Each structure stands twice: as structure tokens, then as C-alpha cells.
Amino acid sequence: MTGRFAFMIDPVDIEEQRSDYADTFTQVDAAAPALSVGELSTQRGDGVFESIGVVDGHAQEVVPHLERLAHSARLCDLPAPNLAQWHQAIDEAAAQLGSGESVIKLILSRGVEHGPTPTAWVTAAPAPDFSAVRENGVRVVTLDRGYDLGAAERAPWLLLGAKTLSYAVNMAALREAHRRGADDAIFLSSDGFVLEAPTASLILRFGDRFVTPAPNGGILHGTTQLSMYEHLAAQGFETAYDRIPAADLPRADAAWLVSSVRLAAAITAIDGVSLPVDPSLTADLNRYLLSPRD
Ligand code: PLP
């Protein structure tokens, strides 16, 4: 099957910690109505999610995605997801996807207003064709994210570091980038440090050292960045997490936005100033990211 479909997870099973969940998903047509109008995910964006890349029926990096789902749920005071149950739902969805690239999304919401349980579902659909952007790269602009690097620790209710469903700000940043003639954006903290893109992590290269903003600064810890670091370290490169001043951006020898479905997109210009691009390393990174990864 290559069309869109979804599994609704049986509400009575979401909070149980059993290990066998054979009959707890109901497959539904993703084009048909499935959510109640009282859903807090749709009314308030009150929930968390994950997007998993699938290549030829192989769901990539499932465990790191499930670990981040659990981390996001903890930050949002949502029930701990039963990882065995989600793993099984992912396996069932991946088994039905055909060849080529697809995306599986996991959604855990606070549920229906005044309702007793959260709502959870898994969707599966073909991925957009990102081959051109992997080949040609992206022009980015820097945008102020409006908080400083200490905000995540000082104000945990801002949920920085959780992958919540509230992506309206991220989408607005992408529209602003397009208005400024760019393809994507890099968020900066109000105290002048580099954060992440609206839907991707940022990796910079300085000589043989690769560096990414430390995830304790209120950003997501990207599963693609983690996986790419393993690949780079295996080739003898140095990899690091750091505070990166915005002033360092134009000094980079190369830079990429990396994420689970688009994979590695080389940054070709920042705020209208060209950045060096390494097409053969970018192609190698995307070959690696398209290979089966666990
Ligand atoms: N940062 C943000 C804000 C994202 O939305 C994403 C992915 O959606 C990422 C980083 C990259 O995460 P991953 O590599 O796990 O897809």
C-alpha cells in the first residue's frame, strides 16, 4: 500500500504498560474524519509528535524517535508512552508502505476536553520528493527566536526542547524566510547564539571539526544529527556540541540543515552571503542517511 493511512490507538490501552498490543490499533482511512471536535491537539496544539523517515519500508532510527517522544511527553506532563506499543504500531505501518520514501508520524495528544484519556494515533504517507533540495541546497536567513539560551532552564513551562504540536511559530518563520527570498531559516537566541531551523537541526563544519548547537539551549535534540555524528566520527572527524555565536556562521567551511525526512540540505547562503558547499560530502551524507539505520 502506498497511499495515506492511519492507526488510531485504542484509548483504553494508551496508559497501560503491557508488552503485547496485538489488537489495540484500528486502521482508518487518513482522508476520513477520525478525531473528535473536542480534541485538545486541534484546539490548543496540546500534544507531542514525531516524524520518522521510512526508506523502502524500513523505519529509520525508531528508538531515538521513541525516546524523544517519551522526553517530550515528560516535559508536557503527558502519560509516559508505552514504547513497545508504539514500536509495534510503527512496524505495522512500515510493513504496509511500499518502496521509496515515506513518513510515519506519531501523535500523542492530551485528548478530548474533559475526557478521561489522551488520544494517540500513527499516520503513514508517501514523503515529498526532496531530491532537488538535497542536490541544490537551501538559502537561509537568520531570524530572532525571542528568547535567550537560559530560557529553557529558567522557564520550563515554555516547553523548549519538547517536540510539541504547536508549530505555528515554526511555520510563520518559514513564511518570513520565503518573504525574504530564502528557502529556510536559522533561529538565533536573543543573546546572539545559533539555535536550529524551524524543522531541522543545524550542523556546521570548521576544518575537520563538526559542531552543532547544544540541545540544552532550548532546542530539539535531532535524531538525524545524532545519526550523522556517528557516521562522521566513524570516518575520523571530530564532532561537538557547543554554544555557537551567530558571528561564527559566515566563517563555516560548510553547513547543513538536517532532519528525518528531508535529510541533509547544504546551506548555500546565509542572509544573502554565499557559504562554501561540499557537494561530494553532501551526497555521501545523504547516501548514508538513506541506508537502513537503527
Ligand atoms: N528541530 C526542529 C524544530 C524540528 O522540527 C526537527 C524535525 O522535525 C529537527 C530539529 C530535526 O529533528 P530530526 O532529525 O529528529 O528529524
Would you give an account of this structure?
It is a single chain. This protein is 27% helix and 28% strand. The strands form two sheets. Strands 7, 8, 9, 10, 11, 12, 13 and 14 form an eight-stranded mixed beta sheet that branches. It folds into two domains: 5-126, 2-Layer Sandwich (D-amino Acid Aminotransferase, Chain A, domain 1); 131-290, D-amino Acid Aminotransferase, Chain A, domain 2, CATH 3.20.10. It contains eight helices and 14 strands. With 294 residues, the protein is an alpha+beta fold. α2 crosses α3. The mean pLDDT is 94. The longest helix has 14 residues, at 62-75. Bound molecules: pyridoxal-5'-phosphate. The site of pyridoxal-5'-phosphate has 14 residues, from α7 and β12.
Helix content: 25-40%
Overall SS class: alpha+beta
Estimate the mean pLDDT confidence: 94
- The CATH H-level superfamily of the largest domain is D-amino Acid Aminotransferase, subunit A, domain 2
What's a quick, concise take on this entry?
It holds the Pfam family Aminotran_4. By secondary structure, the protein is of the alpha+beta class. It is 27% helix and 28% strand.
SSE layout and pairings?
Elements: E1 5-9, E2 25-29, H1 40-44, E3 47-55, E4 58-59, H2 62-75, H3 83-96, E5 101-109, E6 119-126, H4 131-136, E7 138-144, H5 151-154, H6 168-179, E8 184-188, E9 201-206, E10 209-213, H7 223-234, E11 238-242, E12 254-259, E13 263-270, E14 273-274, H8 279-290
Parallel strand pairs: 7-8, 7-13, 10-11
Antiparallel strand pairs: 1-2, 1-6, 3-4, 3-5, 5-6, 9-10, 9-12, 12-13, 13-14
